[in-house]
Design goal:
Blueprint lengths: L2 E7 L4 E7 L5 E8 L4 E7 H10 L2 H11 L17 E2 L2 H16 L3
Antiparallel strand pairs: 1-2, 1-5, 2-3, 3-4
Protein name: DUF2283 domain-containing protein
Organism: Streptomyces flavidovirens
Length: 107
């Protein structure tokens, strides 16, 4: 069962949002930082695997500079993190679309 969760790292003023697959691995990952809620990461496992299997290191580097690095974690114990909560699929999708729009914009 897919789940969507959020946690907060106060030291970095960073909200982390995860879409976890049936086994608890991060399938998509968003990081939003600061008072202005600036997206810094919006990475997808599906996209990373496609690049790994069908592109070169330069393409992977461009992806990571644009969308950040996907957290390669199993989300065990997320409930114990600061301000952790399960969120709806709709909330995650809204954040995902907004983060991708910002990070995908030409610099």
């Amino acid at each position: 069962m897919t789940t969507w969760v959020r946690t907060y790292y106060e030291d970095e003023d960073l909200w982390l949002y995860f879409e976890a697959d049936d086994e608890g691995w991060a399938a998509r990952h968003i990081e939003v930082q600061g008072k202005d809620s600036r997206p810094v990461t919006a990475a997808s496992l599906e996209e990373v695997l496609r690049l790994r299997d069908h592109a070169d290191l330069a393409a992977m580097g461009r992806y990571e500079r644009q969308y950040g690095v996907l957290a390669e974690v199993v989300l065990d114990g997320w409930q114990d993190q600061p301000q952790a909560a399960e969120i709806s699929a709709e909330e995650f999708e809204r954040l995902w679309v907004g983060a991708r729009r910002v990070l995908g914009a030409p610099g």
